[in-house]
């Protein structure tokens, strides 16, 4: 029995099963969390389709696309990192985890730039919201503001999850560098991977719903 | 009964310094931590209730002004729902008992379990901070746009507090589900699980899937209030009803978070004090899961007069009728368990029988509310208040107290004083009915809830209700006193004072830190009480000739 | 109003009697099951108490399933009866009876303002005639309120931003409680009022007493004051859809949807004109949100309803745009209706009418303004 098995488990398998089931359940709670916002988004998009198209047209499509690619790459490198742990290549694991971190930070950097653009354009909902020039004059500024409320609430929550993900990846990267993971034991790595992929998938839904409508 | 001795070494005296409690990962110690903090919150919420019941003795405002009154009922609602009822049985008894019942040394994630207590305390302290800073006046329902635009109170702090406490609930639920799936000992198959575990499993499903939706609703309220990110703001074209949908999507199932664990407790107590296997084990087990699933589909019955469509009203009314059936099945099964049992009326049994009666009344009045045209009249009146107190106090708190008395000897190693236990159980039952039954009448008469000043023809019933509340308050204070007393002076209980089945009773009382020296092996179904075993109980001298041969 | 102690509320509408019948059915079912459970528990506890000498032998192999099915299916059947009965009444409640007396209700923290069809206004009280259906069109200017009359067994939330309606038919003369049933802040329990049900003749007399200005007259003034006519003067101006005969018709929108031009649509078109633009027109109308209070909007829509469709041929531009429902009436009453309003009624209480001020609306003051009329009904 490995020394990674906590006292209250009978075996490594039992511990791994518990960890995996726990992580999946946690992801289920996350789905419900984002699901609340997706439900609200759906209601309002149905009510105010034109305003949502208008709001979407002010988002930076190129940056959004780049960010999608960056995130997908980060998922790839993380999946490969788990793979290298499984085949006992700790150095590869560390390098791939660092690549994942880099992509994660790039994503957040681009997101921050997008936010600052929105801020400058007075597109942040609230007292100072100004719609400015519209592509389609057939919209009510308030409804576009609702779109931006969802944009900021959803991408904001997503970004918060990214930050938590980056902290988690940093921790497992340090652990991997210390040689904690091997083909026998890589549970934390795999759990981090599940979480990261989930956050990635949320973005895969957010991207078309926010950037690609119209 | 021979004079039992406390075991030399057990989880309580395993270590004495304060950090051994504050950093413990022992599920039993965390259960105790929860019990202490929940007791505190219960009496904070109760004090608020006593205050506004006194205010309601007269139709005028004479004790407090309206803004204070509004803060009092909000305080009572928020604290009782989020900081007492939701965590009550799962976090205290569930934490303590589930690993022992399935033969495990701990929950699957002991550190998450400790974290969940800290989250609970952090949320609770935020809530108390919000109260100290002037309180919240939105009601526990936080309806928009009042909560986001008009209320001048500490809505932000309270919303964040409830949000944080919500994660505590999620972690508890997650822990229970994973533990039930992966930590069962050899021979403990799904249909040998005590019904306590089944009901907690169902509860945990709701905690895990429902609470995040409450969390996001509160986040959206905080964003709207704090940053102007107005998702519900009618001035932008937002829909205030959307908040109600999101809120009740959690908060209706949350009612089952409160009641299912009480059903869990009752399903343990009834067979033990009837010395008989429970009637219809599978039906009770599966009806818990059915309640959990159906509970997610009925939230719209809180919104029959809100302006949602008539069609939605019809659908939600229909589904709400269906959710009554599994509850009815449970009540009939418990009653049938009594048939040809060998019944004794110790305190836990008194609470369990009281639970069945009050829950029956609470459940049946739920049908009035599910019936569309009648709900139009009684919605947001005292009828609703009475109904959900029958479920949440008559049901959930009776179950909690029954469970605390039942497992008190296991948790502390000592018996509570039986005579005082029975007396206070009766006081609670009488006080409860006197408090809340008049409120059904008030509700049908048309007195709206959350009314500080009311027309004088409602006064007599309000005085009855307030009188009942003072009796009920006494009924809750008594156990607090004698249970604390029993910690030092109670009779030593021995491992199994009730001669109950279940793995938790095979350990010493109090158990050792790791529960079992050797993993137990289960070979028989739950509640396998020998059919006519009439052996003595600690407080009951029985007549051995009473049993007839089988 | 009878303020003595009682255990059962007044029943003063046809709905009240029907709801009470259903309530008694529910009471009967509940009492039966509560008693059944109580009696069984007490009986079992006494009979099978520990130590009692009774036969405890259980016949093995007895069909448990039959028992379980019985106590699942009988309750299921009963709940289905409750559902059907309740749903039927609920649908009746939401039916609109022919020719109701229409009354506008405005809720604001913490008072109710009612506006009768002839423009007579009252606060915290509603006078209605007995035996005639009444339909309330309600809106809130701040948070959610709820219009609740226990004696009629009716209740409906009043929302900001859109109309909700409530119908009832009182069948008893008297004074009854009006409550706000949705928590709305500090003085929630003070948001009460009286429903005064009168004999029709008395009501007619009451309605004529005191100052009032028909809402359509007030609306016409607003229409002119805000220069709506500078644009909406069909058929002169082809840039604006004509308003004559608009009410109740189906309107095609630029985005392809169609809507019924009901009160809610007219209201939205005033506060959010660009949200639903009529097909064939540009969204050039400015929003009047913030300039017009809900009472002014009541008045404007009342005026718009009086605009009958013009004679055939006069409004070509509009015909094409406003969808396919034929105009209900081709008589040109437009000219009449403009003159026909009850003449120069004594002007209201009032502040100067500048386009920027929500002139017809009560001051934003938590204390309810003096009701325009306070005479008591003779009943």
Explain the overall architecture.
The complex is a heterotrimer of chains A (214), B (550) and C (379). Chain A has 214 residues and is mostly helical. Chain A has helices at residues 12-47, 49-57, 61-86, 90-120, 141-177, 187-211. Chain A has one domain (12-130, 138-212): Up-down Bundle (Four Helix Bundle (Hemerythrin (Met), subunit A)), CATH 1.20.120.80. Chain A contains six helices and no strands. Chain A is elongated and about 65 Å long. Chain B is mainly alpha-helical. Chain B has a single domain, classed as Cytochrome c oxidase-like, subunit I domain (Cytochrome C Oxidase, Chain A, Up-down Bundle). Chain B has helices at residues 18-22, 27-55, 66-85, 88-101, 110-132, 146-150, 155-182, 195-227, 240-274, 281-294, 310-338, 347-370, 372-378, 382-412, 418-445, 459-489. The longest helix of chain B has 35 residues, at 240-274. With 379 residues, chain C is of the alpha+beta class. Among the domains of chain C are: 8-48 and 96-212, Cupredoxins -  blue copper proteins (Immunoglobulin-like, Sandwich); 215-306, Cytochrome c-like domain (Cytochrome Bc1 Complex, Chain D, domain 2, Orthogonal Bundle). Chain C has helices at 14-47, 64-94, 200-208, 215-225, 263-271, 294-306, 316-321, 334-340; strands at residues 101-108, 111-115, 121-123, 125-129, 134-140, 145-149, 154-158, 164-168, 174-180, 193-198, 250-252, 258-260. Chain C has a five-stranded mixed β-sheet with strand order 3-2-1-5-8, covered by helices on one side. In chain C, strands 4-10-9-6-7 form a five-stranded mixed β-sheet. In chain C, strands 11-12 form a two-stranded antiparallel sheet. The radius of gyration of chain C is 28 Å and the shape is elongated. In chain C, 42% of the residues are buried. Mean pLDDT of chain C is 77; it is low at 313-379. Chains in contact: A-B, A-C, B-C. Chains B and C meet through helix 3, helix 6, helix 9, helix 11 and helix 12 of B and helix 1, helix 2, strand 7 and strand 9 of C.
């Amino acid at each position: 029995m490995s020394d990674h098995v906590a006292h209250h488990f009978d075996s490594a398998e039992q511990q791994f099963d518990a960890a995996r089931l726990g992580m999946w359940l946690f992801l289920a709670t996350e789905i419900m969390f984002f699901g609340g916002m997706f439900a609200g988004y759906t209601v309002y998009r149905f009510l105010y389709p034109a305003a949502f198209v208008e709001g979407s047209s002010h988002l930076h499509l190129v940056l959004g696309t780049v960010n999608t690619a960056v995130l997908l790459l980060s998922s790839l490198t993380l999946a490969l990192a788990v793979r290298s742990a499984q085949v006992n290549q700790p150095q590869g694991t560390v390098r791939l985890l660092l690549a994942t971190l880099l992509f994660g930070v790039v994503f957040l950097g681009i997101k921050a730039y997008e936010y600052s653009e929105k801020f400058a354009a007075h597109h942040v909902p609230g007292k100072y919201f100004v719609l400015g020039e519209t592509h389609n004059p057939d919209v009510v500024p308030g409804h576009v503001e609702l779109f931006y409320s969802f944009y900021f609430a959803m991408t904001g929550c997503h970004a918060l999850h990214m930050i938590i993900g980056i902290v988690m990846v940093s921790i497992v990267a340090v652990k991997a560098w210390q040689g904690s993971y091997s083909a026998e034991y890589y549970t934390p790595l795999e759990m981090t991977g599940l979480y990261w992929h989930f956050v990635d998938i949320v973005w895969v839904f957010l991207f078309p719903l926010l950037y690609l409508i119209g | 009964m021979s004079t039992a001795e406390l075991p030399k070494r057990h989880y309580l005296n395993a270590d004495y310094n304060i950090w051994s409690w504050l950093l413990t990962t022992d599920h039993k110690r965390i259960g105790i931590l929860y019990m202490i903090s929940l007791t505190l919150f219960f009496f904070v919420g109760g004090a608020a209730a006593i205050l506004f019941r006194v205010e309601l003795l007269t139709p005028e405002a004479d004790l407090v002004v309206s803004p204070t009154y509004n803060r009092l009922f909000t305080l009572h609602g928020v604290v009782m729902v989020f900081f007492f009822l939701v965590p009550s049985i799962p976090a205290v008894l569930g934490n303590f008992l589930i690993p022992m019942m399935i033969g495990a040394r701990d929950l699957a994630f002991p550190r998450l379990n400790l974290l969940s207590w800290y989250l609970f305390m952090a949320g609770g302290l935020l809530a108390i901070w919000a109260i100290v800073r002037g309180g919240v006046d939105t009601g526990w329902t936080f309806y928009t746009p009042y909560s986001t635009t008009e209320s001048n109170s500490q809505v932000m702090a309270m919303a964040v507090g409830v949000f944080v406490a919500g994660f505590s609930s999620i972690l508890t639920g997650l822990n229970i589900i994973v533990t039930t799936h992966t930590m069962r000992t050899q021979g403990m198959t799904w249909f040998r699980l005590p019904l306590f575990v089944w009901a907690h499993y169902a509860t945990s499903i709701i905690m895990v899937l429902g609470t995040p939706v409450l969390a996001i609703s509160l986040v959206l309220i905080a964003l709207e209030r704090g940053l102007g990110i107005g998702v519900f703001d009618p001035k932008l074209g937002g829909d205030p009803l959307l908040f109600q949908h999101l809120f009740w999507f959690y908060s209706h199932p949350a009612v089952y978070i409160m009641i299912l664990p009480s059903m869990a407790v009752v399903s343990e107590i009834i067979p033990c004090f009837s010395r008989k296997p429970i009637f219809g084990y599978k039906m009770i087990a599966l009806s818990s899961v059915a309640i959990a699933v159906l509970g997610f589909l009925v939230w719209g019955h809180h919104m029959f007069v809100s302006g949602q469509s008539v069609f939605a009203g019809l659908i939600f009314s229909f589904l709400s009728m269906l959710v009554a059936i599994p509850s009815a099945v449970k009540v009939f099964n418990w009653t049938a368990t009594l048939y040809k049992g060998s019944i004794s009326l110790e305190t836990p049994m008194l609470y369990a029988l009281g639970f069945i009666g009050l829950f029956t009344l609470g459940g049946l009045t739920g049908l009035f509310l599910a019936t569309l045209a009648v709900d139009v009249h009684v919605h947001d009146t005292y009828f609703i208040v009475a109904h959900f107190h029958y479920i949440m106090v008559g049901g959930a708190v009776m179950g909690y107290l029954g469970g605390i008395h039942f497992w008190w000897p296991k948790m502390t190693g000592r018996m509570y004083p039986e005579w005082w236990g029975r007396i206070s159980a009766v006081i609670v039952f009488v006080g409860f009915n006197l408090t809340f039954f008049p409120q059904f009448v008030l509700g049908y008469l048309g007195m709206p809830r959350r009314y500080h000043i009311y027309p004088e023809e409602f006064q007599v019933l309000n005085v009855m209700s307030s009188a009942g509340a003072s009796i009920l308050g006494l009924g809750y204070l008594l156990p607090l006193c004698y249970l604390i007393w029993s910690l030092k002076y109670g009779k030593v209980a021995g491992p199994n004072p009730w001669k109950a089945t279940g793995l938790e009773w095979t350990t010493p009382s109090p158990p050792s830190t790791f529960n079992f020296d050797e993993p137990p092996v289960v070979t028989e179904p739950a509640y396998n009480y020998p059919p006519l075993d009439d052996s003595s109980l600690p407080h009951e001298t029985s007549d051995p000739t009473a049993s007839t041969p089988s | 109003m009878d303020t003595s102690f009682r255990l059962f509320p007044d029943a003063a509408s046809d709905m009240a009697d029907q709801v009470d019948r259903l309530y008694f059915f529910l009471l009967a079912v509940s009492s039966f099951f509560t008693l059944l459970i109580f009696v069984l528990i007490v009986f079992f506890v006494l009979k099978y108490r520990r130590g009692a000498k009774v036969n405890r032998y259980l016949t093995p192999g007895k069909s448990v399933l039959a028992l379980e099915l019985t106590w699942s299916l009988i309750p299921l059947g009963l709940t289905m009866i409750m559902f059907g009965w309740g749903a039927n009444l609920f649908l009746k409640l939401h039916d609109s009876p022919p020719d109701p007396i229409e009354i506008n209700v405005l809720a604001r923290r913490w008072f109710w303002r009612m506006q009768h069809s002839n423009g007579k206004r009252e606060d915290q009280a509603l006078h209605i005639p007995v035996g005639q259906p009444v339909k309330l069109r309600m809106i809130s200017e701040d948070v959610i309120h709820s219009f609740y009359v226990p004696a009629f067994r009716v209740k409906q939330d009043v929302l900001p931003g859109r109309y909700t309606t409530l119908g009832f038919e009182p069948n008893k003369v008297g004074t009854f409680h009006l409550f706000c049933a949705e928590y709305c802040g500090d003085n929630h329990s003070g948001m009460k009022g009286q429903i005064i049900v009168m004999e029709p003749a008395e009501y007619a007399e009451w309605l004529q007493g005191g100052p009032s200005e028909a809402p359509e007259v007030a609306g016409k003034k607003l229409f002119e004051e805000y220069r709506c006519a500078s644009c909406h003067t069909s058929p002169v101006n082809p840039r604006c859809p004509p308003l004559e005969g608009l009410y109740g018709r189906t309107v095609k929108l630029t985005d392809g949807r169609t809507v019924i031009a009901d009160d809610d649509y007219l209201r939205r078109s005033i506060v959010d004109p660009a949200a639903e633009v009529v097909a064939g027109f540009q969204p050039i109308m400015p929003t009047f949100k913030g300039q017009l209070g809900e009472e002014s909007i009541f008045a404007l829509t009342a005026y718009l309803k009086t605009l009958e469709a013009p004679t055939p041929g006069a409004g070509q531009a509009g015909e094409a745009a406003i969808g396919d429902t034929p105009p209900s009436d081709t008589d040109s009453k437009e000219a009449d209706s403009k003159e026909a309003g009850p003449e120069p009624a004594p002007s209201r209480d009032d502040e100067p009418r500048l386009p920027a001020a929500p002139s017809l609306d009560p001051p934003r003051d938590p204390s309810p303004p003096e009701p325009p009329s306070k005479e008591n009904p003779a009943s």
